[in-house]
Amino acid sequence: MIAEEASSALGAMEPTRRRPTADLGPRAQQTVIRILAATRDVFSTQGYGGTSIDDIAQRAGVSRASFYTYFPAKRDALLALGNDATEGASGLVDDLAKLELPATFAELEAWVGRYLAFLDEYGGFALAWGQAAYEDDELRVAGTRSHLRLCGRLGAALDAVRGTPLGDPTTQGLLLFSMLERGWSQARLYESAVDAPQLRRDATHVLARLVEVPRTRQQC
After folding, report:
1. Sequence-separated (6 or more) residues with CB below 8 Å from residue 9
2. Which 3 state secondary structure label does DSSP give 78?
3. In whole angstroms, what separates CA 51 from the centre of its chain?
4. In the chain, which ranges are continuous DSSP H helix?
5. Measuring CA to CA, which residue among 11, 5, 13, 10 is closest to residue 149?
6. What pLDDT is recorded for position 159?
7. Which residue among 13, 157, 180, 191 is least packed, with the fewest CB closer than 10 Å?
8. Which residues in the chain belong to E strands, given as ranges?
9. pLDDT value at position 9?
């Protein structure tokens, strides 16, 4: 599936980490969830370089020693969040590809809304990843490979919704991701100056045009 393929590049870097899985007891699972949520929040507001283990532990309400029980370093927490973000985005791409033809405007708008909500959770973290990647070639290479693979899958989903291929899937996916992510970040920056529902609707209009079957010159 898309989630497995898109996260494989990051998986090759497999961080030393513990995640909420069956081998952890309920209390340990909740602690890991709190640590990852706190890491995501602090990265979003302070950036990767400006975040310390103490910052994360304080936000999570755990001791520094508890953080190290599950993650040897903040880079490992970053990788765990990177895999979570990739899986979340992959699931949304799957949802788009499953829309029946012809997709309605309401269905497309619902999908755009879900993606913007996903960015509310992981968009700021993505900026922190970019900061970390500037100083870590391994992160940069793995992150780029994973993102471009996901872009290709999103472009293939657009082809599926359109019912016919058009252009390069990776480029299409990159353009759609870029529009949504840039629009989301600028809306947050401008706050009340941008109407969120209108942003969602306008983004949907662009998506609707992307999945239209282009007319031939004779049809124009």
Report:
1. 142, 143, 145, 146, 149
2. helix
3. 20
4. 2-6, 8-11, 26-46, 53-60, 64-70, 74-97, 105-135, 137-162, 169-190, 196-210
5. 5
6. 96
7. 191
8. none
9. 45
Tokens read off for 62: 């755990």
Residue 19 gets which letter from DSSP?
-
Q: In 3-state terms, what secondary structure has residue 48?
A: coil
Is pTM, for the whole model, over 0.90?
no
Are 184 and 116 spatial neighbours (Cβ–Cβ below 8 Å)? yes
Kindly list the averaged pLDDT for each block of 10 residues, start to end, along the chain of length 220: 42 51 75 94 91 96 94 92 92 96 95 97 86 90 92 97 94 96 92 93 96 60
Res 65: pLDDT: 94
The answer to whether 132 and 190 are in contact (CB under 8 A) is no
Please give the C-alpha separations between residue 85 and each of 76, 91, 104, 118, 120, in angstroms, as whole numbers: 14, 10, 27, 9, 12
Residue 200: closest CA among 92, 106, 86, 102: 106
Q: How many CB atoms lie within 10 A of CB 132?
A: 22
Pick the CATH number of 2-210 from 3.40.309.10, 1.10.357.10, 1.20.120.450, 3.40.50.10090: 1.10.357.10
Helix axes 137-162, 169-190, angle to 10 degrees: 110
Joined together, the tokens standing for residue 144 give 């780029």
Return d(Cα 90, Cα 96) in angstroms, integer. Answer: 10
Determine the pLDDT at residue 10.
52
